[in-house]
Amino acid sequence: MKYDRKIYFFIFIVNIALLMGLNYLVSSVGQNNKYNLPINYLEFEKVKQTGFNLDKFKEMNNIIISETTNDNIIGIYDPNYKYYVNSTKIINPFVYRYFSNDDYMNNKDVAIYIGSIDDILRKSNFDFKSIGKRYNTEIINYFDFKSDIYEYPVILVKNLFSIKP
Predict the structure, then answer these.
(1) What pLDDT digit, counting tens, does each position of 55-80 carry?
(2) Measured between alpha carbons, how far is 77 from 65 in angstroms, rounded to an integer?
(3) What residues form the membrane-spanning segments (predicted)?
């Protein structure tokens, strides 16, 4: 009788552990969204050319990511700094920064380059100006491939409001 209770208790604990493990697996598989966006993100596709003005988005508090015709470049509006906080980066406030409200409001042509942090740490004189010239923008930061915003083949994250249609 005593062994029956122990066996039932053991089976009960194993079942709970299996249910929790399966629940974790199922929920984590479904959360592999582009750019690590939450489950409830909305995706829009441009069907035709319209005269829509992006300035209306500046009043919102939502993250907006825009893919461009160049697969290596995306535009972002991130007023809450989600991708800055959740990124592998070099922190040097005198050299690197994130998109500011001023950048968004004044449509400044600034961008963040995505590459290997190990490479930049090995090279003490990494030249951001040559990358900026290649993409015709000012590089304000350098994120690692492990950052939340990275999605192959993106290597440049620009201010959304500086991208020309």
Answers:
(1) 777 888 888 999 998 999 999 999 98
(2) 7
(3) 7-26
Contact 31, 39 (CB under 8 A): yes
Q: Say what the pTM is.
A: 0.75
Instruction: Give the domain extent around 121.
Output: 41-162
| Strand bridging mode 73-77 / 110-115 | unpaired
Residues 80 and 111 in one domain: yes
Examine the domain organization and report whether 10 and 61 are in the same domain. no
- Bridge partners for 111 per DSSP: 139, 158
Give the C-alpha separation, 70 to 140, whole Å: 20
Would you list the DSSP string of 70-88? STTEEEEE-TT-HHHHTS-
DSSP summary character for residue 62: S
Residue 49 has pLDDT above 80, yes or no: no
Q: Scanning the structure block, which residue is given the tokens 């592999």?
A: 32
